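SAMPLE LOG
Freezer: B-3
Tube label: C17
Construct: single chain, 216 aa
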Amino acid sequence: MTTLNAELSTFYEARQQQIPAEIREIMHRASQELAEAGQADRALAVGAQAPRFSLPSATGQTLALNDLLADGPVVLTFYRGAWCPYCNIALRSLQQHHDAITARGARLVAVSPQIPDESLSLAEKHQLAFEVLSDIGSDTAKQYGLAFDLPDDLAAVYDKLGFDLQRVNDGHPRTLPLPATYVIDQQGMIRWAFVDTDYTTRAEPADILAALDALG
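STRUCTURE (predicted):
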């Protein structure tokens, strides 16, 4: 069975052929600068208490981490938005493993800075059975140490590509989260973490399942 990151790598290679060289250069430079800035090292890691949040779901409910943890451990994944093809591939892969996650008594929740309408469209398109929450302004992502601002030239590229982050992020077009996934136990402690400045790399579902199994 193909791993998620193998699928992402295959998509990346094909995608590179379609993107003009000058845009590839801007994207590559922005990724390099983000990695060198040490952003991933400032994100919350294993052993930290998970910051509590209450966020609106795609269907208009408000979900709180405390309530989710009352039922069991939580798998919390942060993604950039429905406009990001790597996020879509990762979310589809999580959906394929959703039954295995819930069989372990855990709840899967995905968080992005998008407005609920965008999250709803995404959930319907990919038939996601888990909650997709809206972190407008990335306040929750900031608490987890994941939020960063796009550099000017990359923001201009995203505008040119028609991503319209001004609209989908409700007036916060520059702030995005690093791709990250956390396994949080019922006491609210982070027991497993994946954080990477490279948006083309994501947590492997098999590793998430292994982390849940390790909770005992």
